[in-house]
């Protein structure tokens, strides 16, 4: 047998470089991509991973049309066989679908004919007809990666290719070639060949380019020299990509995605000597237009704010509270008690009720009944004082009729903490944070330390208690609810002063049992980072940015460019690659509709105006 070419098709939904095609039926056409970004999708493009499939095997479909919004999902009309060989169609993302075949159908040819299939929706399918063959003889080589691999993990990793028969191959690097739009930052550094396995070792930074990657292996055959074929497997390629600049560079801001899909960044601190409405603390807000890839002005808040908090109410409005700043027209700054509400339908901010206690670096949680719980915070000026008061905002349609109820005081006052709503237990769980007690009138007359306590607010009884479980003491950390009802806590630091050390150890808290267990270590100890919970496949978490204290006494630190991932299925932290900028104290917008998100602003010495996206689109 002559040489066999083994091809792996790496399919991703990131922005790839487009050719200047003019035919709208061409998936590379800028015209067609424009329709896609606008949501028109009038031309449905489909690409199947193979036209040969084994009984019980899998075909992947990459498309530009979101079938997850349809009640019946993606339907594939089959002809040419008595019994449809398709067992199940599973969405792996909005634009990637896994088609599982029935093991009982072992031979034959069939067609999927989509002509006239979507005419009632005014959609055209290109091409309209697809031919397939059921092949009971597996190919000589297969990729051992399950349903795909995140190649951004391969900053210095490997890929295993297994054979169903003993293979004969020289295993030379010259026989492996890479092509496609994602190839420029990857190289095959070494090859390890055994009787039925080829391990390709990669080096480089695969996050630099998203897109298609094809790996071709030449000169390989089995001992009988009677097998040949081509296998195509779609692989998810994730990467940070540069986004547009903000109109106003900022740190200590907040970002949120509205229910109508608009993405909003608001408030924060501007660069030195940049004054808007008479102050460097911002009331300024901007919308990100994902079609034009630009930021456009949005309605200013009533107050200038930094180190504040925002939540999206159950009806889609935004509720803002506290922070450091002042009302527009008043140039002075201080810790705020004010709240305000943004209505996306009118694009107007309206003042709400005042909190009983001024606070910044606090947290808010929207409860199942729509009310908002406000917890903790710090005062703005030395000597620093942490806030113990917990308040409940009763939300109404009119901000003028909203009221504030004082729930009580935390046993440990705190700010810079993390809190998560546990719907299964009916509680809001409040993890760690920094407690600061004033001991005198001087600016340095305060004691600040990280907390190991976990406070619990019971939604039904409106009571505050302390958990018997103890946290690794930390503040400026992260907490994320898991699909099984437990909560993952990770990151942060253990002190404000020169003895600061990063907390590498992660922990998992069970709110039903009120127990906590130690978990694996982060690769980087970080605080003031940005974290995104990606609703793609299983529970995927990306952690980016932040500060890491790198010396024994914690007196120096660096911002972090490396990113890492965690998922419930893989049950570990692993290197994901690098973000485009090492930044801290920025803000993020999580794309709840598509997965992924955007990191905005922050600082690396100076305050930044650039942005970057981590996206599946």
From TrEMBL:
InterPro entries: Gal_Oxase/kelch_b-propeller (IPR011043), Kelch-typ_b-propeller (IPR015915), Kelch_1 (IPR006652), Kelch_domain_containing_8 (IPR051746)
Pfam families: Kelch_1
Keyword Secreted in annotation: no
UniProt cross-references to SUPFAM superfamilies, sorted A to Z: Galactose oxidase, central domain
Entry keywords, A to Z: Kelch repeat, Repeat
Highest taxon, organism lineage: Bacteria
Classification via PANTHER family: RING-TYPE DOMAIN-CONTAINING PROTEIN (PTHR46260:SF3)
Protein name: Kelch repeat protein
């Amino acid at each position: 047998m002559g040489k066999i070419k083994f091809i792996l098709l790496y399919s991703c939904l990131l922005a790839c470089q487009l050719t200047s095609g003019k035919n709208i039926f061409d998936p590379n056409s800028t015209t067609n991509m424009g329709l896609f970004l606008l949501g028109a999708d009038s031309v449905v493009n489909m690409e199947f991973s193979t036209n040969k499939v084994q009984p019980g095997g899998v075909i992947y479909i990459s498309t530009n049309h979101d079938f997850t919004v349809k009640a019946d999902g993606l339907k594939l009309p089959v002809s040419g066989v008595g019994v449809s060989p398709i067992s199940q169609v599973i969405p792996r993302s909005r634009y990637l679908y896994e088609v599982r075949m029935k093991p009982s159908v072992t031979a034959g040819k069939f067609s999927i004919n989509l002509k006239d299939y979507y005419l009632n929706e005014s959609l055209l399918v290109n091409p309209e007809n697809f031919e397939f063959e059921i092949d009971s003889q597996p190919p000589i080589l297969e990729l051992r990666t399950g349903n795909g691999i995140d190649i951004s993990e391969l900053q210095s990793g490997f890929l295993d290719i297994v054979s169903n028969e003993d293979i004969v191959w020289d295993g030379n690097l010259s026989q492996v070639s890479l092509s496609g739009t994602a190839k420029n930052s990857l190289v095959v550094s070494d090859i390890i060949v055994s009787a039925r396995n080829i391990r390709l070792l990669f080096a480089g930074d695969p996050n630099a380019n998203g897109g298609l990657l094809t790996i071709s292996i030449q000169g390989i055959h089995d001992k009988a020299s009677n097998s040949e074929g081509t296998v195509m497997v779609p692989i998810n390629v994730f990467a940070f990509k540069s986004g547009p600049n903000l109109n106003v560079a900022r740190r200590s801001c907040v970002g949120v995605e509205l229910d109508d899909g608009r993405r909003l960044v608001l408030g924060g601190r501007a660069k030195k000597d940049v004054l808007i409405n008479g102050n460097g603390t911002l009331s300024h807000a901007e919308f990100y237009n994902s079609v034009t890839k630009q930021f456009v002005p949005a309605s200013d808040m009533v107050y200038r704010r930094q180190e504040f908090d925002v939540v999206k109410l159950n009806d889609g409005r935004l509720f803002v509270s506290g922070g450091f700043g002042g009302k527009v027209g008043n140039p002075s700054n201080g810790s705020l008690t004010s709240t305000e509400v943004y209505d996306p339908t009118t694009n107007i901010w309206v003042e709400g009720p005042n909190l009983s206690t001024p606070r910044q670096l606090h947290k808010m949680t929207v409860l199942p009944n729509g009310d908002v719980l406000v917890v903790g915070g710090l005062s703005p000026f030395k000597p620093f004082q942490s806030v113990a008061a917990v308040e409940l905002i009763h939300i109404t349609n009119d901000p003028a009729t909203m009221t504030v109820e004082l729930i009580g005081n935390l046993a440990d006052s705190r700010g810079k903490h993390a809190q998560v709503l546990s719907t299964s237990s009916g509680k809001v769980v409040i993890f760690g944070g920094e407690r600061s007690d004033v001991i005198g009138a001087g600016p340095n007359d305060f004691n600040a330390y990280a907390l190991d306590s976990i406070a619990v607010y019971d939604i039904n009884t409106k009571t505050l208690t302390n958990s018997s479980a103890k946290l690794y003491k930390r503040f400026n950390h992260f907490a994320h609810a898991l699909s099984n009802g437990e909560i993952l806590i990770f990151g942060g630091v253990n002190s404000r002063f020169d003895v600061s050390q990063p907390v590498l150890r992660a922990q998992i808290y069970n709110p039903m049992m009120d127990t906590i267990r130690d978990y694996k270590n982060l690769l980087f100890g970080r605080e003031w980072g940005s974290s995104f919970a990606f609703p793609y496949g299983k529970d995927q978490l990306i952690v980016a940015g932040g500060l890491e204290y790198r010396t024994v006494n914690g007196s120096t630190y660096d911002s972090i460019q490396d990113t890492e991932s965690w998922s419930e299925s893989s049950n570990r932290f692993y290197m994901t690659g690098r973000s485009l900028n090492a930044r801290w104290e920025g803000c993020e917008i999580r794309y709840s509709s598509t997965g992924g998100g955007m990191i905005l602003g922050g600082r690396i010495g100076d305050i930044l105006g650039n942005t970057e996206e981590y996206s599946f689109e």
